[in-house]
Amino acid sequence: TEEEHDEMAYIYVFVQDPHIPFVPETPENLIIPHDFFRVIIPCRASHPTASVILRSVPAREEISNSYDYKTGFIDNLPPGQYQCETTVNGQTFTSDVYTVKIEELEKVEDFEVEVKASEETLRAGQPLNITCIAPSGSGFQQ
Asked: What is the mean pLDDT of the chain?
């Protein structure tokens, strides 16, 4: 309902790591259902200003530059395999390989996402742990 939507809040936390520049993916998130209008390749960088490009696999052809650091690449892509690439301190890193496949999308029923914080209030400098628990699978995206 509209009331529930007004109470929703979003937070995006970056954990910068020069040795692991892409957020690790679970295997089920590496298979992307093909959509004729847009496909989301969810390779997300651990740094908001990272320059990320999308390449086809195995040809290594640069495909897209429509990158959103919170979502990944959103583009009209044909079925195939893709990999994200970035350079950190002169070293090139590649993401896992994402496979875009034509398949019937499963109908996703209503689901719950549980968010827990280690503390309700804290002072500057105190550690904070946030845990999100949600269903996994191709119908869900981090």
From this structure: 83
